[in-house]
Every structure is written in C-alpha cells, then in structure tokens.
Amino acid sequence: MEDFNSETDSDYTSYWRDWFVSSRGNEYFCEIDEDYLTDRFNLTGLNTEVSYYQYALDLVTDVFDLDADDDLREQIEKSARHLYGLVHARYIVTTRGLAKMLEKYKKSDFGKCPRVMCDGHALLPVGQADLPNMSTVKLYCPKCEDIYNPKSSRHASIDGAYFGTSFHSILFQVYPALNPEKSSRRYEPRIYGFKVHAAAALARYQDMEREDLKSRLAEVDIQHRFIEDSESDGDAFEYDEDYAEGRTEPAKNQGQAGDAASAPMEIGN
Ligand SMILES: [Zn+2]
Question: Superkingdom, according to UniProt (predicted)?
C-alpha cells in the first residue's frame, strides 16, 4: 500500500467495459471483446467522430494513464461512452456480437412488446439512423414488426446509432429460425358486441389485402409466415427446437401453405 496513488488509479480504470455494461441504464449494451476494440481496423473513421479519441480509447481498453483534472476526466469519460456506443453498433453485427445480443434477447433484456396481441414477445433495440445525434433508440418487435419507445427514460435517451438500423434484420438473416410467425390476430373494436362500422370495413380491407399478398407470394413460391392464431396459443417466445427442425406451418389453407418448404423469406433480392 506504499504507492497509494497509482494503486487507486489503476483500480479505478480497471475493467471499464465491465463497469459500463453493468451500470444502470446500460442494460441494452453487450460487452465488446477486447480483441475487437484493439483492432484498429474496426475503429476506422471514429477518430474524427469522438473528441479526445485516444484517451477515450485508452479508457475503454483499461490502459488509461493520464493525470487529468476532474473537468478533463469528465470530458474523456463522456467521449469514452460515445466511442463505446459507436463501436458497439459495429460489433453487434459480427458473429460474436450477434451471439451476445441473442442471449440478451432470449432473456428479454430489451423488454417485451406492449401490444396485447403479441403476448409479451421479446424486443430488440433498433436505431432509426446510423449517424449519432439523430434519434434515440427504439425497440423492435419481430412479431408485429413495429417499433416502440423504451419505457424507462434512462433507455429512451440512448442514441439509436449505438445499435444501428440494420442489427435486428441481420440477426434474423443469420438466425432465420428465430423469426417468429407473424400473427394475423388483431384487435376489433366493438360496441356492445357489434363491430364498429369503420373499423369493421378496415378489417375487411386488411383481410382482403392479406389474402392478395398470400396469393402473390405463393405465385413466386415464397412461403408466407402468417399463422391463424385466433386462440391464444401462449407460445410468445418458444422458437427453439421445433422451429429449428423445420416444423411445418399449421395447414389451414390447403394447397397454399401445404407444400412449399418452410424456407425463410430472403430479403434484398
Ligand atoms: Zn409486437
């Protein structure tokens, strides 16, 4: 304990990433591997985006060694968080990053869909822009394919660019079996049991459009992923073995859903 100062310094800067991901409000982030952070190639272009770049990087990689006053220290700390976020967006679309985020998704670390018909399906973080300071992070539900605001204000203030616009789509491209069946259930407003006219007309229109979509998909030999689940089947988050082994769709439209292989839809061609 004779060299008290340097001892506390090194303690303070140890395991910055560990501290960061376990801090309150940072639950959406996974821990970036040291190997990834120390490979300069992965950080290309970030030196112009982050002030005090080198100090921030040193802090994130636990080699920070500067006798800075509190003001400067705070600036560097802020830069480090920004740098971590920007690298995070790149890291989570790598194989390792996807696997880490998948674990968090399975534990519903990002929350559950607030839509009643989604039966509490797990959400994924999504950005509406890939550039920082444009918009805050939103949550994507793969079941209803819509995005929602985070409940907690701590999460609602996180920059969306720290997750990016493509992460959730890439996750389901890499793990297609995890993409849930789309639900055709929807809420129908009623007045004393009678359907409200405008809403009923809209529902009929949506039904017609869906049937049209299904037949167009069938024409080009694409297996649609709608299921008839008017009864709650309580399978909000069971996509494990059954799916992976290619369980067939419940055949309700004979001739349409029956024969096509349960191949996931290819996006982008
Ligand atoms: Zn949903």
Answer: Eukaryota
Residue 103: both structure tokens together: 């674990």
115 C-alpha to ligand 1 centroid (Å): 5
Tens digit of each residue's pLDDT (9 = 90 or more) over 58-85 = 999 998 888 889 999 999 999 999 999 9
Tokens of 225: 């992923």
**226 to 199, 206, 247: CA distances (angstroms):** 21, 13, 14
Ligand 1 centre and the CA of 169: distance in Å? Answer: 15
Mention every residue, 6+ apart, whose C-beta is less than 8 A from residue 249: 181, 223, 225, 227, 257, 262
Per-residue pLDDT at 110: 97
pTM: 0.72
| Distance (Å) from CA 113 to ligand 1 centroid | 5
34 CA from centroid of ligand 1 (Å): 35
- How far is the centre of ligand 1, averaged over its atoms, from the C-alpha of 68 (Å)? 47
Residue 154 C-alpha to ligand 1 middle, in angstroms?
Answer: 22
Ligand 1 centroid–CA 149 distance in Å is 12
Centre of ligand 1 from the C-alpha of residue 57, in Å: 37
Query: What is the residue whose two structure tokens read 């996974």?
Result: 30
